[in-house]
Write a structure and sequence with these properties.
This protein is mostly helical. Helices cover about 70% and strands about 0% of the residues. It has a single domain, classed as Up-down Bundle (Four Helix Bundle (Hemerythrin (Met), subunit A)), CATH 1.20.120.80. Helix 1 packs parallel to helix 5, helix 2 packs antiparallel against helix 3 and helix 4 packs antiparallel against helix 5.
Amino acid sequence: MSSRPTLNVAHLPSHGFDTRAPIWWGNLLLLMIETTMFGILVATYFYLRQNFNLWPPPRSEYPVGYNTDPMLLIPTVNLVLLIASCAPMYWVDRSARRARKRATQLGLLICLALGLASIVLRWFEFPAMRFKWYENAYGSCVWFLLGMHYLHLLTLMTEVVFLTIWVFFRPFDEKHRVDITVLAVYWYWVVAIWIPLYAILYFGPRII
């Protein structure tokens, strides 16, 4: 039997929020990697731009003067929706930290509805680009950028669905309250990364 003194940690909490939670750091590193990935895609977009005199590149099968700039209505509505969704997610974050189960449940349902609406609108953003992915390098690049962000939206909503089910049917324990606060950080990042991407994809062709 060892005679070395031991450290009593019984008084310490079993879980911690933000920087005290290992999952928070794992999520942060993941978002750094994903941000770098989007940076590479944006660099590819501008690299392709310098190879054409007109942007988006003209297509011979289109009549002269045909507008190839991406349509703005649906993407702009979706952008506003995503930004607005940060408010209920912030409410969810605060409620989870304070162990307010009912408020967390309601907030997650609102976020779920807004997220699903955004996913539906994103589906219609692809034809709004006016190019198919296989038609030229521009089409491939913009569809891939849209698709990668779409994938993050789907991943985000999958997490929301699972946590919503847990909050409604399982104990509102501290571990999953921490998971909800980490989900909020991911939600904010998905919205924040889309703002510059929206500007590049939809206003880039009109400016550069």
